[in-house]
Specification:
Length: 112
């Protein structure tokens, strides 16, 4: 009987792990542009949940692009900065399951 109980317990744990592994996730991708519409390389882009939790950051590439992959579905706030110049917060950006949400951020002043 003990072996059977362990088998049932193992099956429950496997199912629980499989269920957790399938948590719906999505991607946020975007572009950072300067005030002239040119892409900004090397800027820091910040993301956090709309309640201010779980902050993360990444950098823009040579085309001003950035990506946050495999994020839990929900609403996030996003902004970028370079040389102490910040974009406004993009509030309540929705990340959906198995999709990529695209946004464009704009710096308020030219950055050299």
């Amino acid at each position: 009987m003990r072996g059977r109980s362990l088998g049932v317990l193992a099956a429950v744990l496997v199912l629980a792990a499989a269920s957790m592994a399938r948590e719906p996730v999505g991607t946020l991708a975007g572009t950072l542009l300067d005030s002239h519409g040119n892409p900004v390389e090397g800027a820091t882009v910040f993301i956090q949940t709309s309640d201010g939790q779980h902050p993360h950051a990444t950098r823009t590439d040579a085309d001003g692009q950035f990506v946050f992959e495999r994020y839990s579905i929900g609403q996030y706030d996003v902004r970028a900065s370079i040389y102490s110049v910040f974009t406004d917060w993009s509030r309540r950006v929705l990340i959906r399951a198995n999709r990529t949400t695209h946004i464009t951020l704009h710096l308020p002043a030219a950055v050299k």
